[in-house]
Amino acid sequence: MIDRTRAAFTRGRERSRGARRGQTLVLFALSLTAFVAIAGLVVDLGGAWSQSRGQQKAADVAALAGAVKEANSGLRATIMQAAIDSAVSNGYGASEVTVNIPPTTGKYAPGGSKSGPLSTNDCSTPALSPCWIEVIISRSHANSFSRVLGMNSFDVSARGVSVAGIANAVSNGVAPLMFNYKSLEKYGSTPTTFCNPNPAKCPSNSSWPTDEGDSQFAWTTYCESSLNCNVNSAEAKQIINGGNFQVEVALDMYLGPHNEGDRPSVCHALLDQYPNDGDMPVAINDDDGNLIAWWIWHLDTAGSNCEGRKGEQLSGWFVSDATATLPLTIVAGGGKATFGETIVRLVE
């Protein structure tokens, strides 16, 4: 009786071990399937990410192609076609490319955080420029391993926004200087010594340069209204050094002449900031003192004199905003420029 009981117990244990081994195999198979599915998902996500990088480059290039057309007086239809043609040349079908003027989303869309009176422009006529160009490239990524999870493809989209036109703002580093547009047209890139129009120091004394007689510059400040816009020398030095001053200065801001304080000290502060010369954005005014443009001006520090017989004298010349590292820009709320430097920018 005992032997029969022991045998039955032994057979039960063996059946139990077999069942456990079977359960282990099932769990292993399920775990292996899940592991393979997750690994496959990671591989497909990596492929989609790699695809998105290529699409982003193509979207940026296409947006810039549209902006180049805009900078060359192209209107809405030709701008959009230039963007599409660029994307097609980079391997995308026209059906995969969407061009919106103005953008439908983002900071530069009407109502966006960077929007303003110009943001609704669509470049359908020359008067409705500058306009912001949005290019979206969409293409599905065909999955390989993730299909076991029911994900046959991932939607991949890339977006670029650009603008072109005459600069109406400075994004950073503005100098507290203004020049008359006639000086820019007359001297351009020719090295010239400009003097500050003050009594008995520089001909044609005025609150702003008029370019009558000797070439002139004037110290200036930029503010939101015409009230209390003058600054003292310490505040002007803050402008030069980028202290507590607006990061972005646009054409629709008031242009106020700086007639107070110790101007030679401001002059010295400017030269100290650029001991080895430097390129800086400066304001361009008309004969009535209105701010009408921005330009890049090169300061020749060694050729300048803050204590000369005629007062402060700054030597330098006007240069083009040839690279994207220079701070001339276009903003939707900065007023429309009618004179100045044409630029092309990828803004988003």
Topology:
Layout: H1 2-71, H2 76-89, E1 97-100, E2 132-142, E3 153-166, E4 169-170, E5 177-180, H3 181-187, E6 192-195, E7 218-223, H4 233-241, E8 249-250, E9 254-257, H5 263-273, E10 278-285, E11 291-308, E12 311-319, E13 328-329, E14 342-346
Parallel strand pairs: 5-10
Antiparallel strand pairs: 1-2, 2-3, 3-14, 4-8, 4-13, 5-7, 6-12, 7-9, 10-11, 11-12
Helix pairs in contact: 1-2, 4-5
Verbal overview:
This protein has 348 residues and is of the alpha+beta class. It has two domains: 2-164, no CATH class; 169-329, no CATH class. Helix content is 32%, strand content 27%. It is built from five helices and 14 strands. The strands form three sheets. A seven-stranded mixed sheet has the order 6-12-11-10-5-7-9. Strands 1-2-3-14 form a four-stranded antiparallel sheet. Strand 11 and strand 12 (311-319) form a beta hairpin. Helix 4 packs parallel to helix 5 (263-273). The radius of gyration is 33 Å and the shape is elongated. It starts with a helix and ends with a strand. Mean pLDDT is 79; it is low at 5-9.
Number of helices: 5
- Subunit arrangement of the protein: single chain
From N to C, what is the helix and strand string?
HHEEEEEHEEHEEHEEEEE
Class inferred from helices and paired strands: alpha+beta
Task: Count the beta strands.
Answer: 14
| Beta-strand proportion | 25-35%
Keywords:
4-stranded antiparallel β-sheet; 2 domains; elongated; 7-stranded mixed β-sheet; 348 residues; alpha+beta
Summarize the structure.
The protein is an alpha+beta fold and 348 residues long. The chain has two domains: 2-164, no CATH class; 169-329, no CATH class. Helices cover 32% and strands 27% of the residues.
